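Changelog note: in this version the structure field was regenerated for every chain. One regenerated record is shown below for reference.
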Amino acid sequence: MRDDIIGILRGNVSDRVIEAMWRVPRELFVPRRIRHTAYEDRPLPIGEGQTISAPHMVAMMCDLLEIAEGMKVLDVGTGSGYHAAVIADLVGPEGQVYSIERIPELVLFAKKNLEAAEVKNVTVLQGDGSRGLPEYAPYDRINVAATAPKIPEPLKEQLKVGGKLVIPVGSCYQELVLVERTQEGFELEHHGGVVFVPLVGDHGFHI
């Protein structure tokens, strides 16, 4: 089944991203009762009203970010830890991923999954992802796996010059946006409609 996903991705994203997704065992990042569906190309429930993104979306977001070895990456919305694990593979042992999740149960779930997958370079923290993690900033890349009403200013501020941020934006209609920080400001690219759970927090949605 993993081969089926790789076949879908080939030609659409870089070989580096495909290789990283091949190496990361997705079945370790979904609840045991639905592991047989791990490689279906769709979002899957992971509890607490949250989902693990479809494989093609994880691949697309990683590809847009152009993640290189040795980078420091902020991952917002840890969920089960799968997206962070793929990013961790891309940055390699010299790189570091800081991943933030607001739901305590998912923080524990992600840590357990990352340990089972023997991922060493991801630090999972509980908190408001819309505020980022300023204590570890600036970041080469920022990945946001939840939709925001607008791009949170703290995340933009925590991005290095030359750095990139990918985030879904919108409520009824969501669009995937790639942000690059330049010396002059921020440049935006729009990459089509998507569907994500809401980014809840001070600079996200309020519930």
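Spot check on this record: The chain has one domain: 2-194. The radius of gyration is 15 Å.
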